[in-house]
Amino acid sequence: MKIILLTAVMLIAVFLMALGRTQSETDRELAEKLLESAEVQQVQLSAAGDPPVFQSGSRAALFFERKGMQSLIRGVIVIENDRVIDLVILQSHEGLDHDALDAPSFRAAYRNKPAKPPLIVDAVSGATISSQAVTDAVNARLVQWTKYAE
């Protein structure tokens, strides 16, 4: 069920971008869906130009970007209270089949972990550097989030 919902969310994001919406508008709409709230607020964690962060109550969507082995990796880590509840890879062409980071087991490795750095997860076989890039990006955002939340 979660995979179907995630697929629908990603298709909606692609569709909205095709309609000429800005990346910021698309990110906000995706955050509303992931946070299950129409009342999200964008918060500034660091320098302008960094990927956005949205918050609604005890939930937050921390978008990230990182250079992978083959291409740019874009994603969002969803946290609630002090736990990671989901990791969504929005853009990636990593691994031999260009879909190594789409593996459900990779995303599942982040779930229910404390939303405090350093988060440690096993790398995806065949995409070790790319999966480490995701973990590094997630940890960088969690460092910023922890400082913001204090």
The rounded Rg comes to 14 Å
CATH architecture: 2-Layer Sandwich
What would you call the shape?
Answer: globular
- For the largest sheet, list the strands in their spatial order: 1-2-3-4-5
Walkthrough of the structure:
- 37% of the residues lie in helices and 23% in strands.
- The protein contains 4 helices and 5 strands; from the N terminus they run ααβββββαα.
- It has a 5-stranded antiparallel sheet with strand order 1-2-3-4-5, sandwiched between helices.
- Strand 2 and strand 3 (59-67) form a beta hairpin.
- Helix 1 (2-18) packs antiparallel against helix 2.
- The longest helix has 22 residues, at 128-149.
- The mean pLDDT is 84.
Attribute tags:
150 residues, Enolase-like, domain 1, five-stranded antiparallel beta sheet
How do the strands and helices of this protein lay out in sequence?
Layout: H1 2-18, H2 23-34, E1 41-43, E2 53-56, E3 59-67, E4 72-80, E5 83-91, H3 104-108, H4 128-149
Antiparallel strand pairs: 1-2, 2-3, 3-4, 4-5
Helix pairs in contact: 1-2
Briefly characterize the structure.
The chain is of the alpha+beta class and 150 residues long.
